[in-house]
Amino acid sequence: MEIIHISAECYPVAKAGGLGDVVGALPKYQNKLGHVAKVVMPMYRTKFLYNNAWELVHEGSQYIGTKWFHYSVIKEKTNKLGFDLYLVDINGLLDREKIYGYDDDSERFTAFQIAVCDWLSKWQHLPDIIHVHDHHAGLIPFMIKFCYAFRHLSQIPTVLTIHNGQYQGWMDWNKAHYIPAYDSWKWGMLDWKKNINPLASAVRCAWKVNTVSQSYMDELRYAANGLEDLFEYEKGKCSGILNGIDNEVWDPETDEYLAKHFSVETLEKGKRKNKKEICKQFDLDVEKPLFTFIGRLVGEKAADILPEAISSSVYQHQGNCNFLILGSGDPVVEGQLESVKQQLNGYVSTYIGYSESLSHLMYAGADFLLMPSRVEPCGLNQMYALRYGTAPIVRSTGGLKDTVIDIGDPQGFGIRFNEASVWDVTYSVGRAIDLYYNRKEQFQQIREFMMKIDHSWESSAEEYIKLYQSLK
Ligand code: ADP
Ligand code: GLC
Questions:
Q1: Is a pLDDT exceeding 90 seen at residue 472?
Q2: What is the pTM of this model?
Q3: Which of the following CATH numbers is that of domain 267-454: 3.40.50.2000, 3.40.50.300, 3.90.1150.10, 3.30.1330.90?
Q4: Ligand nearest the Cα atom of residue 212
Q5: Which ligand is located closest to the Cα atom of residue 376?
Q6: Which residue, 16, 169, 281, 372, is most buried by CB atoms nearer than 10 A?
Q7: What is the pLDDT averaged over residues 172-179?
């Protein structure tokens, strides 16, 4: 089968979070299964762009509203990522340093989607599946179904994967003219509560919809940032497919960012060496259990409770714990974390920003990884942590619920709690400290067990193929 993935992110080209990881891995594993999966994304000004060789495969022009734009599509020459990678360049709109966060994001991503549809409609043959990811590609199922210019594509089955239903790409109706001429009777397929809602439109127009865990799919029917009724109504075509992790990128035996490589057999020594490196860099005590958080400092991740939960844990547990936080986001939370770091110097440290290398070192050197998320469609961090022998401490929600079993269970290996509250985190940290100091042997066995859990992409990649096949 030929599958075209359309996404705003793809690791290592451009990544802001887990969407990038998934789109950088799933196509590779689909190709390994004998299919032809390709990725199309915007051309941002990234290191990857400048460090690789490209060939021009197409040039075209289109309108967004009344503005004419020229676009070009370039292809990475060597198939370096294990799939064909195409970047769409639209001068002045897409070629910027950041992926998101500009005032004209609606215009940028709408123009991107118009260019992609225009390019695909020029192909000699039709691909078997168009697979769109999140709202940035969410207008495509509508466009190929109802825009006159792209009718040629309308028979291609479309699949939408929702990585995060909180963000929907809302646009005011005064931007309706951005969308190329379409059958105006169908305007309702774009609308949700008096806005153009690209995610809602994709849920309606895509042939199949999936989220990145089954639990998150269930949750969307009662908590979907306003789209609950839509998910209830469309439940017949919706399913959950759990993400995998790319075991080739996330391998403690070969990971280029670690201070020392390790396997299940050498885990104790290996983790200790990585922990030492972190403690040296951040002035923490290697003898104390190291609790970490890696992620966007936003409400979804419950980052707002971290400053208080950390101080409360250090006081309640009499300083028998250390914390290291890596992330950026809400400036208020960033400031509060910096204050906690000042107050509890030697117990708490932070790195406010994005660092791919530090994140790998932290998965390897930490004892525990905290994820108090209010919303977590899948979560990859906990799966990386498991692979590196770090015990996840998670709130029971979405994909966290589907991948972590509490140590209270005979099969358990992590710690789970119910509320995104200071008390639940403090209490869970206490349970972890107990495991670390008082049940060392059990902790060691749990770590070995966690490292052997298989969350590789093979089986999920196969599930996507089955989903596509159900559409043929
Ligand atoms: P989300 O996509 O909601 O942010 P995921 O758990 O799916 O959450 O994936 C987050 C990804 O982003 C992981 O690869 C994680 O290591 C990475 N990440 C998040 N914040 C940072 C950061 N500040 N520095 C480095 N990597 C980060
Ligand atoms: C989103 C979700 C996260 C998920 C990731 C990849 O950003 O917030 O839970 O793991 O996408 O699917």
A1: no
A2: 0.96
A3: 3.40.50.2000
A4: 2
A5: 2
A6: 372
A7: 96
